[in-house]
Amino acid sequence: MTEIVIGSGPAGVAAATALLDRGRRVLMIDGGKAFAPADAGLKDALAATGPQGWSERQRAAWAAPPCGGAPGQTRRYGADAGMEPAAATWADAAGVALRASMAEGGLSNLWGAAVLPYAAKDMAGWPVTADDLAPHYRAVAGFLPVQGTDALDGLFPAFPMAGRSALAPSAQAGEVLRRLARLDVPGVTVGAARVAVGDGCRACGMCLHGCPWDLIWSARQALAVLSRHGGFTYRAGPAVVAVESSDRDVTLRLADGTSVTGERAYLGAGVLPTAQILMASGYADRLELKDSQQVLMPFLHRWAAAAAPDRLPFTTLPQVFVEIDRAEVSPFLVHAQLYTWNDHFPRDLIASYGRLPGAAPVLRALARRLIVAQLFLHSAHSGRIGLQLAADGRLVAEPVANPAMPARLDAALGVLRRTLAGAGMTALPFARRVGTPGSSFHVGGSLPMADAPSRGQSDRLGRPGGTGRLHVIDASVFPSVPATTITFSVMANAHRIASEAPDD
């Protein structure tokens, strides 16, 4: 009998890879919306020519669509299919920024490609350890490209970077790294960002609009490889709406009223669709998501970069990681990633502060000295998002604030500001933006793994209540959400569950 994987995002492709390596037959059932460029001809033209041959008209046309979507919706390649509109998932979102995806590859079509394993201290209380995940980080890195340096290995030994290289930093990022390397700030570790980018980056500056060469990894790429395997079958739509697990098999009920039965099922639809499926299946009446809350803090550098920041070559993915390990700030790591110039900076400044006549040229000049830090807190210091099913099957959100969050955030930002000040950067605290609940998309823990799971929990193999043939494999089973990047660990844990699931 075939084993079924639900969802084609990072968790789904990691689990499917592990199952195929075990010699199992895999059926992947997915929402399956095609994710394709809005203008494939333009994409092909850009890829064929290279950045030095692009006209300003071509650049503007490629950059415009991602900036023209509905509020809260992220786009790449001018395409909307990567993220569901709020009304498709939420009956009442109550200010929650989190969105679902029904696309091939899921939300990995839209991510920032930042890649870190989890540190042992951030997994305290989990029924699995960083050492348990270590071989699965390595297995996932067999098809997920990881570029970076070893400067952070001391904090993240589960996946050392020996033998790997980092993307060439932009002029701004190179100067930031050089200046920070000269500092010795207790409890602060700095290194080049680790990113999931394939070889051959052309440093064209279009990362946040969609790489014309598809070098920023997406689960769609792994799905294409899996589809060439004789033991793998992919079925796009209708989506799974409920599951029933017995001692013998698992039956999935689909949106069109049909059903599919398999030996085991691995649920990795993303935290929101997974929550809908679990509640519709009777595993819980209410679930609660843990959030890793974020803040954006802009800085102006006081030094002159070696080259104009908007002059090629440069990339616009995160380029610098800053890890704060200070007991007075948090017993867990605080993670920050620094973004150097991209074309969103002047656009955002003008939209926010450009009402005065003549302000636009000044703001464009300021944008060239702008560096934006995105800082994340551990879920222990963040709010939560309660979830219930509405009568129509959509979700109702109930954000639950964490009263400790503001003080933890201020403490972390204080360390970051003092550190970056030593590297010649001045914070702009009036412009900081604390993200709305779920805006980091580093969210999970609605069915946390436990050594002795009860209702509303899962065992170390992601089985609700510790029994049955249904395994939840996405971030829903994380007991907490560390501040460091989430996707790599989701994939490693999904690969681990699929590798360790019983044979019968």
How does this structure look, described?
The mean pLDDT is 94. The chain has helices at residues 10-21, 40-49, 56-63, 86-89, 130-140, 171-181, 219-226, 271-280, 344-353, 359-367, 405-421, 487-500, and strands spanning 3-6, 26-30, 90-92, 188-192, 232-236, 240-245, 250-254, 259-262, 265-267, 287-291, 294-301, 320-324, 334-339, 370-376, 384-389, 395-400, 425-427, 433-434, 443-444, 470-472. It is globular, with a radius of gyration of 22 Å. It has one domain (3-500): 3-Layer(bba) Sandwich (FAD/NAD(P)-binding domain). The strands form four sheets. Strands 4, 11, 12, 13, 14, 17 and 18 form a seven-stranded antiparallel sheet that branches. A five-stranded parallel sheet has the order 5-2-1-9-20, with helices on one face. A five-stranded mixed sheet has the order 3-16-15-10-19. The chain is an alpha+beta fold.
First-last Cα distance: 10 Å
CATH fold-level label: FAD/NAD(P)-binding domain
Question: What count of helical segments does DSSP give?
Answer: 12
If you average the pLDDT, what whole number results? Answer: 94
Structural class: alpha+beta
Strand content bin: 15-25%
Number of strands: 20
> Low-confidence parts lasting 5 or more residues at pLDDT below 50?
none
